[in-house]
């Protein structure tokens, strides 16, 4: 029987939790008995989430994951406030421009890498250090992307995080979503100009996936993170849990140029760093092509 409160008494730190998947995870984790630190750069939204959930179960901490000092301070804040750190969900990420590889703005790409890759590495580094120092057999989860598993590359390697922390009983896994109409996707300039509402995006994605009758919501990704955070996944380490509603099963319907761009960008990213938190953020490009024919 599954415990109703799967995270009873545990303390979780979630980045990018002022909205979308991170917010859904924060609400779900609290619902299952956890104390949660919501970390984000969107202070007003973060405070609203805390007020909505209840300040007795969660708190907000400003954290720009591209600033390693802020990451370290956020980990220290969590430890000082709650006395421990059992779960880290490194979820903060940005999409970046929708341009193809040939039109890539390298400064914009560096920003994506700084947030999605280096920010995740910094969070794993400092939360991992804290867990090791306190002999906490914790769980570290990263949001990646199902797009990163295409093009014959397979699930991304976790050598830097998995092998370094596994010896201390700390598990590192990632959730790879695809096709979730989060505020981040809906407000991306290349998609926002089409004025598409979340319901339309969700229905469009659902219509081409292999799993019919299901529309993915941020909470579906949060449920996957809850599983990886709980003791029910105690023997799971270095796993890439794809939550895409079967969309990748029909990925061949996407234009070939999108997949070529995906492979090139991923190969470049992996050459920079190989870690669970690497996020290709190819999702918007795929979504763009899904809707472009309708919105021209």
Automatic annotation (TrEMBL):
GO terms for molecular function: secoisolariciresinol dehydrogenase activity. Coiled coil: none annotated. Gene3D superfamilies: NAD(P)-binding Rossmann-like Domain. One of its GO terms (biological process) is lignan biosynthetic process. It is an enzyme of class 1 (oxidoreductase). InterPro entries: NAD(P)-bd_dom_sf, SDR_fam. Its EC number is 1.1.1.331. It comes from the Eukaryota. Belongs to the short-chain dehydrogenases/reductases (SDR) family. This is Secoisolariciresinol dehydrogenase.
């Amino acid at each position: 029987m599954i415990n109703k409160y799967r995270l009873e008494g545990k303390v979780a730190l979630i980045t990018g939790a002022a909205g979308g998947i991170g917010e859904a995870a924060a609400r779900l984790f609290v619902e299952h008995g956890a104390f949660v630190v919501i970390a984000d750069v969107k202070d007003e939204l973060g405070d609203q989430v805390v007020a909505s959930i209840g300040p007795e179960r969660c708190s907000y901490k400003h954290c720009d994951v591209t600033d390693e000092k802020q990451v370290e301070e956020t980990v220290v804040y969590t430890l000082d406030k709650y006395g421990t750190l059992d779960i880290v969900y490194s979820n903060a990420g940005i999409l970046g421009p929708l341009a193809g590889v040939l039109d890539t703005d390298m400064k914009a790409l560096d920003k994506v890498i700084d947030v999605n890759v280096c920010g995740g590495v910094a969070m794993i580094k400092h939360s991992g250090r804290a867990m090791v120092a306190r002999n906490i057999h914790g769980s570290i989860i990263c949001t990646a992307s199902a797009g990163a598993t295409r093009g014959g590359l397979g699930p991304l390697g976790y050598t830097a995080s998995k092998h370094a922390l596994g010896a201390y009983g700390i598990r590192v896994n990632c959730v790879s979503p695809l096709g979730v109409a989060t505020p981040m996707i809906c407000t991306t300039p290349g998609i926002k100009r089409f004025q598409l509402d979340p319901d339309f995006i969700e229905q469009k994605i659902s219509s081409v996936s292999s799993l019919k009758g299901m529309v993915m919501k941020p909470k579906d990704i949060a449920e996957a993170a809850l599983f990886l955070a709980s003791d029910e996944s105690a023997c799971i380490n270095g796993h890439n849990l794809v939550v895409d509603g079967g969309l990748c099963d029909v990925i061949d319907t996407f234009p070939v140029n999108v997949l070529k761009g995906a492979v090139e960008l991923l190969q470049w990213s992996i050459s920079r760093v190989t870690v669970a938190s690497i996020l290709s953020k190819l999702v918007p490009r795929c979504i763009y092509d899904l809707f472009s024919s309708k919105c021209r």
